[in-house]
Design a protein that fits this description.
Layout (H helix, E strand, L loop, with lengths): L3 E4 L1 H10 L2 H15 L3 H4 L1 E2 L8 E5 L2 E8 L2 E9 L3 H9 L1
Parallel strand pairs: 1-5
Antiparallel strand pairs: 2-3, 3-4, 4-5
Length: about 90
Amino acid sequence: MSYEVLYHQEVVKQDIPALAQTMKQRVKVTIEAKLLTRPELFGIPLRQSLKGHRKLRVGSYRVVFTIKKATVIVLAILPRDHVYEVVEKRLG
């Protein structure tokens, strides 16, 4: 099964532009290789207040996403030390 990837507006406006060029490339390659093919296999389920969402490790960064049918929605691409707080704020 093939998946489509959508990005939260804040990921496009804030997260991606803040990444170094090499990290942008690493994240892009990882998303294409793992989230477009088998996100449920590669994404580690989150717990507690973020239950139902998943994370993918790319170096010291975390890609937090959710799966809705054949769509992967990326909620954040941030360093792990504050990514979960930001995701909770973005979810409202």
